[in-house]
Amino acid sequence: MRIGKDLVAASATPVVLGILAEGESYGYAILQRISELSGGELEWSDGMLYPLLHRLERLGHVESHWGASPTGRPRKHYRLSSQGAATLAEQRRQWDVVGDVLAKVWPDGPGGGGSARLALGGA
Amino acid sequence: MTLEERRELDELVATWREWLERRDALSAHDIDELEGHLLDRVDSLRSAGLHDDEAFLVAVKRLGAVDELSREYARVHSERLWKQLVLDDDPNGGGRTAASGDLGAPGAPTSVLRRANGLAVALGLGVGAGLAVKVADLIGVDPTFFLRNAAILVLPFLAAWFAWRHRPPVGALAGIAGAFALAAVVLNAYPFGPGAGTAAFATEPSMTELLAAVHAAVALWLVTGIAYAAGDWRSGDARMDFVRFSGEWAVYYLLIALVGGGLSMLAVAVFGSIGVDVLPFVGEWVLPCGAAGAVLVAAWLVEAKQRVIENIAPVLTKVFTPLFALMLLALVVAAALQWNLVDANRDLLIAFDLVLVVALALLVYSYSARDPLVRAGWFEWIQFVMLAGALVVDLVVLVAMVGRIGEFGFSANKTASLGLNLILLANLARAAWLHLGFLRGRIPFLRLERWQTAYLPVYVAWAAVVVVAFPPLFAFA
């Protein structure tokens, strides 16, 4: 299964902020974590993460500083700012609402409920 | 890994870096970051059993298409796009045309073909603007007609240039055309009275006429910006791009006017020395056509040669912001020492409004050239001093204005000054507050920029009020 482009784009910010809420991290590790958490199903081309991180930095949601990898390569680390934490909480509330609604219209769990799938198919 | 393999990989990475460095949207630091990522990915693929070159190819592929990636970077760092057109000139800038799918965005990379034709189109429109002015002159309209209609005659050609260049949607063009039509009707259908105290000279404009003309020019300029933003006038980035354009355009126009004026005087003197009087020709043809045409030529220059001024703009603001801050402080001290601004004459109060406009322009212009991620430094403190000084001056002038209005009642001139003053006060107060937050590291720079771009419609709205409502309110006096 491949997750649609719009859904990937919409979820990118909360996912990245959520991962940074676990602690300071850098691009490659964030992507590894996303792939690990989603079982490889939530993926976008690696490069796209960086413009997103820069956008979040510009908005003041994350802060960055240059460090080095264990092998001595320069590496840019990102960490959540207090404003980013507030944004994450807000986004989380919004996603909870969406999740609740979806859970109510699809009560039978994944793959179940023939009528719900039919309705979706007709949309 | 053998030394041989290591060298091979280094070479591949160096070639890849070089390829990315041609993208103006990516800074060296961005590429460092991407390179770190690439090498991390290569390491993990290699530990999964791939050879160096295979691992490299897979890692590069996983980074995604370079065009798409650089476009995404450009979207985040729009101030870098601003430099893009000139680097476009680089004949080695291969792969650039692939990015031309995004012509809609302002300042987006444009294909070589469109750029080459740009000058011809700009010159054609410039000639058109000159002719429009000249035709109006030849059919014998009175001089105040030009005062009222200068913007309406010339700016549609600028809008046409933007339309050709940035391809705004039809709806946006219709809106712009509507604004021009409305301004034309209002400015020419209103029965403006003769100028105060100079009734003998019918050519003297009345105060409401003068105010309407000036405010119409400001409003129409900003409305023309909708075409520049390719219809995307809600976007803060697009508005900031138009602010940049306006500043650079003013610099170019001034340069052209200076050189053009000097050349014309030289021509008059040289022809005069051989007994040919070219002064009437210069006055009747060169000056009006040149002044109108230069609007388009300056617009073309801004977009074609952005980097030249790009280096001057920060220098200009850096030089003048401290000087201006000092001047504002001196003004505050002077106002405190002799509290007689209420008695000051009317012209002086308008001069104060102008001072505030310049302070704000210096602020916005320096915002437009600033890297938003750089932390606040000494320059931002000076800007804050300037803002605080401007705020105090604004309040002093406000008190003086209210005093004058209380004493002599409302007039068109005083009300227009008061309105502008209040609008500037609101902007300056909020800007100073945000600036303080930025200095203390509490507010990201983006918010400061957004506040200024979000405020632009207020100017349009106020200018529209002065154009449309003031003349009837003040009996066309």
UniProtKB/TrEMBL annotation, chain A:
Q: Which residues are in the Transcription regulator PadR N-terminal domain? A: 16-90
Ranges where the record places region Disordered: 65-85
Q: What is this protein called?
A: PadR family transcriptional regulator
Whose protein is this, by species?
Agromyces luteolus
TrEMBL record, chain B:
KW Transmembrane helix (keyword) present: yes
Instruction: Print the keywords alphabetically.
Output: Membrane, Transmembrane, Transmembrane helix
Transmembrane portions of the chain: 119-139, 145-164, 171-190, 210-230, 251-273, 285-302, 323-342, 348-369, 381-403, 415-433, 454-474
Query: Which InterPro entries does the protein's record reference?
Result: Perm_prefix_1
- What this protein is called in its record is DUF4153 domain-containing protein
Organism this protein belongs to: Agromyces luteolus
